[in-house]
Fold:
Amino acid sequence: MNLKLKLMAAAGALALATAGPASAQKAEDTMRIAFDRELESLDNYINTAREGIIVSRLVWDGLIYRNPQTNEYEGNLATDWEWVDEVTMDFTIREGISFHNGEPFDADDVVFTLNYVANPENPVTTQRNVNWIKSAEKLDNGKVRLHLKAPFPAALEYLSGPVVMYPNEYYAEVGPEGMGVKPVGTGPYKVAEVEPGQRFVFEKNENYFADSPKGQPSIGNLVIRTIQDPNTRLAELLSGGLDWIWRVPADQAERMVGRDEFTVVNASTMRIGYLYFDAIGRAGEGPLQDLKVRQAIAHAIDRQAIVDALVKGASEVVHSACFPSQFGCEQEVTQYEYDPEKAKALLAEAGYPDGFEIQFSAYRERPFAEAIIGNLKDVGITTDFGFYKYAALRDKIHAGEEPMSFMTWGSYSVNDVSAITSNFFKGLKDDYARDDEVMAWLEVGDTSVEPATRKINYSKALKKIADEVYWLPLWSYNVWYAFSPDIAFEPTADEIPRFFTATWK
Structure:
């Protein structure tokens, strides 16, 4: 369905909803939620999708928690911690906590989890989240020592987010497959039912520990369904079949603002969009190995117009390969203004006066991708467009089958450049530039304990990435939320809806 038809359908759905939604399911104490993307697995360390991160915060806990309002680190499964030296941390483990299956939580679970994820032979999809961990050892029943491979000042960020603690006995029994369909954690919600690709049912953990910085869960049950079509999600919200949706298309959300039967909120996020270029030719020799071609594409895309017409909300054009608030995100980089005539001239200089055809792919926001395709066509670049599910596209990119793609990255909500720039430009599997200077600068930035040294080296790396157009950063993202007025819910800038803080009004 093209953009015009989608907007007409959304308008029609709104026009039909004269009676408003049925009240939220307060009587059954059940909040009904829709995600737009199917989860590959519920196992935190296998999943890379934003929805998986959200589920992770419901089901599991980390040693530390970063308060999303203050950005201060607070004790979670660990009551306190200290840096012994630049590569060693000691944690005091909280007592009296049990996993959802009754297995007691203790230092053995922490040591098991940290050593498991540190082993590159074990299936942890996003290695950047854990590859700084060397090993962990049990000092006594209440103390764990964590050894880092090198100084890594962002360790607390990762320990407060993607690095969650698993039950050693249960995981040894069921492995990633079992954890993927029947997860067990210490978190505020238990997984009660799983229908892969359809829905997940969570129930409140009545025994959640009182001192958790997350607070106590309030709503008794959460039912999360996968509904990929935005018009279907909206229709279900309007009819009362859902209580909460997000990623509402801007045009739909704007029509809903001011209606008493809904709460509609727009909030910025740490996610940015970008064009990935196969600058080293993994997909075979082609135009993208030429800097002038990459520069031409950068000048061909009218990013501001796409933000104004499609992305909307709190989004802004981004010029550096990171989110502006992240530590070390240098903003004084080469910028590529929209200039189709300059793009055509650069293509001619590169030997493509009549343009060329190239394979181009995306996994979300098809209208955004279509706008990019239109801009490229205006300068003579035609595309063979493929639209895939995220996992399929990610696998095709890793296999060297996609020369250029429209992608996004939310940094796992880690407010540090190491969570994005280093993931894509430090020689890992997502690095299609393989620039030795950039990799060296990022290594210093990732490991130095001196903030000034980190900033200097991140700045050098980000400036060269921009100069060479290894990426074309596009825009920051915002999210439109729409939910029943019976629900008290506050979005946060890290794009992690914390349903454990939601309450009935």
